[in-house]
Design goal:
Elements lengths: L6 H9 L8 H20 L3 H13 L7 H16 L3 H14 L4 H14 L2 H14 L4 H13 L3 H11 L7 H13 L3 H13 L4 H12 L3 H12 L6 H14 L2 H12 L7 H14 L3 H14 L7 H14 L24 H5 L11
Length: about 375
């Protein structure tokens, strides 16, 4: 029988090893074990412990830098960002780029931090470098556009979308991505043409993007058909379920949003559990299910005890539970401070940086 260790037990085993017995093989095993401990803590929202684990993992390595160390650095930077240590995250990206001047993903992530700090000039410079070294990646152009748009620089972002049209090809992937870019540019007829062609070439993801196009033009029936086609494909993950839930929250379809959220939370891998729980709280409140919202926020606080942003909502629901003991809720019951428009879609630095299954340490 294969023995299973918790993160804490595994750490204890590693720490118990004599330092003199650690050859290169043992050090690599320790490095990978601490990496896994860090990932587990990160998924659980224990970012301080995750940072210690990732830092300790890097300390195990002696010799030439490999992809493993680069991967751990991406995780470390993501955790530093979650701990509001933007300068620390910047230092980690600087170290990555000192080692490899052509690490395009590091330029993108560092540029996004500069953008958040208000250093637009440095951000744009890093984005240019990112594109220079990852010029064949559609997703990079799209992410740069989304970041710049979030900071009222949509015009600059559209320049990157237009650059992506230099990527040629008529296979499913190229058609799918060009369709998505046309959608972001508001060129819906062109988007439909590309995405329908992609679907004909068996692109599953094109169904999702085409649904968004029909949503944008107000064709709800067609949008629902393509959403269902995508969901029925079996390829939807928890990130997609949260994105679909956010769309329905914005439209006021709270029951449908809850369905998507619950589907996301029930999946085997849920790297965005925090966002799903947050949106679950919002959706429950708007459906009048304050007991459900209270249950969801308790789980949220248990998993993410250091998140002070949720405190006011927690107090509201706690007081609301006290009111419920005295009287039944009325139809004009008000929700707390969160609004449907404040739903979380996952566009965060950490979300851009890292997930457990990332092959290149970028989470993309």
């Amino acid at each position: 029988m294969k023995r299973k260790y918790t993160a804490a037990v595994l750490a204890a085993i590693i720490l118990a090893l004599p330092a003199t017995a650690c050859g290169s093989s043992e050090r690599l095993e320790n490095e990978l074990a601490y990496r896994q401990i860090g990932i587990k803590n990160m998924d659980d929202g224990n970012y301080e412990d995750a940072l210690i684990a990732f830092s300790t993992a890097l300390e195990q390595h002696i010799g030439q830098i490999t992809d493993t160390e680069l991967d751990i650095c991406y995780y470390k930077a993501a955790v530093q960002y979650e701990l509001n240590d933007v300068d620390g995250a910047l230092a980690t990206y600087n170290a990555l780029l000192d080692y490899n001047k052509k690490e395009g993903k590091a330029y993108f992530l560092r540029g996004s931090l500069y953008l958040e700090k208000g250093d637009t000039e440095s951000a744009l410079s890093d984005y240019e470098s990112a594109v220079r070294y990852c010029k064949k990646e559609y997703e990079l152009y799209i992410q740069i556009y989304e970041k710049l748009s979030a900071y009222n620089m949509a015009a600059e972002g559209e320049e990157y979308l237009n650059q992506a049209f230099t990527l040629k090809g008529n296979d499913a992937v190229n058609l799918e991505n060009r369709g998505r870019i046309y959608y972001l540019l508001g060129q819906y007829d062109n988007a439909k043409t590309e995405l329908l062609a992609a679907i004909e070439k068996e692109s599953v993801k094109a169904n999702l993007y085409l649904a968004e196009v029909y949503d944008a033009v107000g064709d709800d029936a067609s949008a629902e058909n393509y959403y269902q086609a995508y969901l029925g494909s079996g390829e939807a993950d928890s990130l997609v379920m949260n994105a679909l839930a956010a769309i329905q929250l914005e439209k006021g379809n709270y029951d449908l949003a809850l369905e998507y959220i619950n589907q996301g939370l029930s999946m085997e891998k849920v790297p965005n559990k925090r966002m799903l729980l947050y949106n679950q709280i919002i959706a429950c409140e708007y459906t009048g299910d304050f007991a459900g919202a209270w249950t969801a926020i308790q789980e949220y606080c248990e998993n993410y005890p250091t998140d002070q942003a949720i405190e006011r909502e927690y107090l509201f629901l706690k007081n609301r539970q006290g009111i419920r003991e005295l009287s039944e809720p009325t139809e004009d019951t008000q929700t707390g401070d969160t609004q449907a428009g404040d739903s979380q879609t996952g566009d965060t630095q950490a979300g851009d940086s890292q997930t457990e299954d990332s092959e290149d340490g970028t989470g993309n």
